[in-house]
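hey so i finally got around to running the thing on that chain from the lab meeting. sorry it took forever, my laptop kept dying and i had to restart like 3 times. anyway pasting the input first so we r on the same page abt which one it is
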Amino acid sequence: MLDLTDITEKYVQFEHQAESSNQAAIAISDRRELLEFRGVFEIEKQLLRSIRNGDKTAFYNMTLSVNHDGPGILSNYNQLRKIKNLGVYVTALATRAAIEGGLYPEVAYTVSDLHIERVEDLHEYNKVVSAIGATLIDFVDRVYESKRKHLSKSIATCQEYIFNHLYESIPLAVLSDLVSLHENYLSQLFKKETGVTITQFIQQEKVDEAKKLLELTSEPITAIATKLNFYDQNHFIKIFKRYTGLTPKKYRNKNKFDAQYFSES
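ok and heres what got predicted. didnt touch it at all, straight out
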C-alpha cells in the first residue's frame, strides 16, 4: 500500500525539479540571444589584450567606439542584478588579464575585491555601468605603470608589437628594426628583462590566443594554426602541447561547454 503523504511529497519534489529545469532552459536561451552579436567575442578579446599589455591607447580607442544604451536610473531589480553580475564577471576577466600582464596577484585580487564591493553597494543601473568602466580603467592603468617600472622602453615596444601582430609572422629582424637595436643584443636584453626568449614569448602569446579560439569558437584546428601563422598543423600541435600539456583537440574537448555555448549562439 502507498501512503498518500509520500505520493504528494514525491509529486511536489518532481514538480519543483521540472520548474527549476525550465527556468535554467529559459536562462540559457536568454544568454544565447544576448550573444547573437558576433562582435562580442572580438571586443572582449581586444579589451583583455589591452589590459594585459597595459596599452592605454588601444583601451581608450576601443572603449570610445563602443556605445552603451542601457536602461535609465529607474531600472527594476532584475536589470540591476544582471548588470551587477556582468560587472563581477568582467572584473574577474580583467583581474586575470592584469596578472598575466605582470601585476602582482596580491594587488590584482585586492583591487578586484574593492571594485566588486563598490558595484554591489550601488543601486542605480547607470552608476553600475560607470563603475564597471572605472574598474577596467584602473586595471589597465596599473598594468601600464607596472610595465613601465620593470621593462625598458625597447622591450615594452617589442611586446606591444607582438601583442598587436599575433596573427602575423614576427621575425626578429622586424623587432630589431623597430627599436633600432642589433638582433643579438635585443635577444639578450629581452631574455634578461622578461626571463624568456623572444621566440618563447611569441609562442606563449600565440598559444594563449589559440586557447581562447579553441574554447570560444568552433573554428577547425587547422584554420586556427593557419591564422596564427604556425608552419603547419603538426608544428601547432607540438608547440601547443609544450605550453599546455594537451593537444589542441584534447584541450577543446576539455572545454567543450564553452565552445558549444558560443558557437551555437
